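Lecture 7, part 2: worked example. A protein chain together with flavin mononucleotide.
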Amino acid sequence: MRAQTSQPVHEIIATRRSPRSLDGTAKIEEADLLAILEAGRWAPSANNGQPWRFIVARPGDESFEKMMEVLNPTNASWAKNSLAFIFTLGKTTNQNGEPYADYQFDCGLAVAQMSFEIHHRGFVAHQMAGYDKVKAREAFEIPADLVPLVIVAIGKQDSPEKLEGALFERETAARVRKPMDELVISGI
Ligand SMILES: Cc1cc2nc3c(=O)[nH]c(=O)nc-3n(C[C@H](O)[C@H](O)[C@H](O)COP(=O)(O)O)c2cc1C
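Predicted complex, written out as structure tokens:
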């Protein structure tokens, strides 16, 4: 469903959303995945520190199964039809080994850029923080200086009718945002 924006904005911003009805029979080419990762790679970051790290998994990969095992049951119920997962990790130290204060902010920008590229290519992105981070750290042997952030599901959108119950309701609900005057504290 297209967002009811108060002003005209870029088409991808107006039409991007995080659906859960995904067509598991669709395919994604490696070239698409590489371009999506490239979009993330070129995100801006504090001091060009680039603290994002990615673990990519496709159905059939052992790592895809591991991600399915760490997702919470509701996420797993729809994300099983993803064409790929990009597990995004953040590096907590900078080039000098000092604490990287803004690593989560920077990683969010990288994921945003990937999500725009995903939608531009006719797929959909759905970020998930609903997974067991302790289990994920063990399963992927994530070193101490990397923090598990989001698992990004990439899929091909399917019809809402393929979902049931609460997931169907959420898929078809009106899309809402806080009013602008709550967000812009002063200046306009
Ligand atoms: C950091 C982050 C974590 C999220 N985690 C989940 C999740 O675990 N499960 C889920 O179904 N959606 C998750 N979402 C999706 C949000 O619910 C969704 O972006 C929000 O409701 C706005 O909807 P829209 O993206 O369709 O505009 C997450 C989004 C973000 C940015």
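Residues 103-120 form the longest helix (18 residues). Residues 17-18, 75, 127-130, 150, 175 surround flavin mononucleotide (CB under 6 Å). Keep this in mind for problem set question 3.
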